[in-house]
Amino acid sequence: MDKEYSEETIDRFQDPEYSGEIENADAVGKAGNPSCGDVLKVFLKIEDNVIKKARFKTYGCIAAIASSDELCEMLEGKTVEEARKITGKDISQELGELPPVKYHCSVLGTEALKDALDNYKEE
Ligand code: FES
Q1: How many C-beta atoms lie closer than 10 Å to residue 2's C-beta?
Q2: What does the pLDDT look like over 79-111, one tens digit per residue?
Q3: Domain containing residue 28: CATH number
C-alpha cells in the first residue's frame, strides 16, 4: 500500500461505509475525471433542505474512494447550502491530507455533489 496515504485514507478505502446506491434518491450527480478516466456518482436523500443520507459509487482510485466516503459522511446532516460549500481541500484535510498528486481525486466528489445539487434544484 502506498505509504503516502494517511491511515484514515487507507481505512476508508478498505472499508467504505458509504459505498452504495440510494433507491428513489432525491438527487443524483455524476462527475468524470478526464485525466484518469475515473467516474463517480453521488446519491442523496434530502428532506426539508437537509441531506439525510448520502452514498457513492465509483470506478476510481484509492483516493477517489476514500474521498467519496469521507464526503458522504460530511454531507449527512448538512443543509443543501452547507453542502455546496464543501471543497476538495476540506475533504483532504478530514482524510489527514492526500498526497498532492492525488488532490484532484477529492475534487471529483465535490463535482459530482455539485451536479447532484444542481439536478435537485431543477426539480
Ligand atoms: S486517479 Fe482518477 S480519481 Fe484518482
Answers
A1: 10
A2: 999 999 999 999 999 999 999 888 889 999 999
A3: 3.90.1010.10
Cβ neighbours for 35, distance < 8 A, ≥ 6 positions apart = 104
**In one letter, which amino acid is 90?**
D
Q: Residue 104: exposed, middle, or buried by beta-carbon count in 10 A (0-12, 13-18, 19+)?
A: middle
Tell how far the Cα of 49 is from the centroid of ligand 1, in angstroms: 31
Cα–Cα distances in Å, from 99 out to 44, 54, 75? 28, 25, 23
72 catalytic residue (yes or no): no
66: containing domain: 7-122
Q: What is the atom index within ligand 1 of the atom nearest the CA of 37?
A: 2
